[in-house]
């Protein structure tokens, strides 16, 4: 079977749903070579458990049709586990992280569907509830950084920060907060892990030099995600969510990407989202050292301190009580 006919599944996720994981399983040996390691009906799970114990395999592959089936199983299974009082908070968040990976794989391989967007909404809603129960962001991060992907944790932190910033305005509503957290969950869904490193390097340099260093995939990802979620593919995704996704790397001075639009075209909601995004990335960079808050705000003012960007920075300061 060709590699592009297969979908990636985290091995721990397969083990979590072992009773339902009755598929042909493949391993990727190199960029172009995959090998079948187990057949439907064999006891594939025992084999996966051995791989998992030895920690030498993180990802396994199943066919596209099996993956579609597995995403539905997982969506239903997640609900059941969330209502089960024996499921710990750690298990819940780990499931949300893996669910995020399944949504990402599913959107990239099959395009948008009502099922995968509903799953993304469910994951972002439940993630926001979980982080709300945690005393602070730092604790949340420390608790889950060894078990969850950085990509998932960042999207939760960005969504949560945006929501808290929205809370400082009178026009706040649950509906708008859900739209923002969904944007945080989906805005980077087409990126690969190394792309995040490129973006980090870009953000640390001067704008004009750095844009040229970014790959086409990075430069165009806001539009790629937008076209995945376009009205004809996904009429149920709101305009506000789409605009936040489209503009999350723009900057009020026109130095952002992909379009380099100026502050007049950046609505407040997008400004809140982009400032929250940069703030969270800086927190990661400064290893959550809140003593360096002044440095972080100086950078935010330099990069976003104009028009709605300035209002967003003020909202962040209000939210942090500074
Ligand atoms: Fe992005």
CATH architecture of the largest domain: Orthogonal Bundle
Please count the helical segments.
15
Ends distance: 57 Å
**Content of β-strand:** 5-15%
Fraction of residues in helices?
A: 55-70%
Structural domain count? 2
Highest CATH level, the class of the largest domain: Mainly Alpha
Indicate the CATH topology of the largest domain.
Hypothetical protein af1432
Notes on the protein architecture:
The chain has 322 residues and is mainly alpha-helical. The protein has two domains: 86 residues, no CATH class; 233 residues, Hypothetical protein af1432 (Orthogonal Bundle). Helices cover 62% and strands 6% of the residues. The protein binds fe (ii) ion (FE2). The site of fe (ii) ion has 5 residues, from loops.
Q: Which helices and strands appear, and what pairs or packs with what?
A:
Elements: E1 6-10, H1 11-16, E2 25-28, E3 34-38, H2 44-54, E4 59-63, H3 64-83, H4 89-110, H5 114-133, H6 137-144, H7 150-166, H8 174-186, H9 193-203, H10 207-211, H11 216-228, H12 239-247, H13 268-285, H14 293-304, H15 307-320
Antiparallel strand pairs: 1-4, 2-3
The structure holds fe (ii) ion.
Fe (ii) ion binds at residues 187-188, 221, 248-249.
């Amino acid at each position: 079977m060709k590699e592009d006919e297969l979908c990636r599944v985290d091995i721990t996720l397969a083990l979590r749903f072992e009773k339902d994981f009755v598929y042909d399983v493949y391993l990727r040996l190199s960029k172009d070579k995959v090998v079948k390691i187990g057949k439907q009906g064999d006891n594939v799970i025992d084999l996966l458990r051995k791989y998992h114990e030895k920690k030498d395999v993180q990802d396994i592959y199943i066919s596209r049709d099996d993956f579609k089936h597995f995403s539905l199983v997982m969506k239903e299974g997640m609900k059941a586990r969330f209502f089960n009082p024996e499921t710990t908070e750690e298990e819940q968040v780990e499931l949300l992280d893996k669910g995020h990976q399944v949504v990402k794989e599913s959107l990239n391989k099959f395009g948008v569907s009502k099922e995968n967007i509903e799953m993304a909404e469910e994951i972002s809603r439940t993630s926001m509830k979980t982080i709300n129960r945690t005393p602070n962001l730092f604790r949340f991060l420390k608790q889950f950084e060894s078990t969850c992907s950085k990509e998932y944790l960042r999207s939760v932190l960005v969504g949560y920060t945006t929501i808290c910033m929205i809370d400082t305005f009178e026009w706040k509503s649950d509906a708008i907060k859900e739209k923002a957290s969904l944007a945080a969950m989906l805005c980077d869904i087409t990126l690969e892990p190394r792309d995040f490193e490129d973006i980090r390097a870009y953000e640390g340099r001067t704008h004009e030099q750095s844009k040229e260093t970014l790959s086409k995939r990075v430069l165009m990802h806001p539009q790629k995600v937008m076209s995945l979620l376009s009205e004809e593919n996904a009429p149920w995704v709101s305009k506000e969510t789409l605009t936040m996704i489209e503009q999350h790397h723009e900057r009020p001075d026109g130095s952002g990407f992909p379009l380099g639009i100026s502050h007049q075209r950046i609505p407040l909601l997008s400004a809140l989202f982009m400032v929250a995004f940069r703030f969270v990335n800086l927190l990661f960079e400064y290893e959550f050292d809140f003593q360096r808050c002044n440095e972080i705000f100086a950078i935010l003012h330099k990069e976003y301190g104009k028009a709605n960007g300035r209002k967003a920075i003020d909202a962040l300061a209000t939210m942090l009580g500074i």
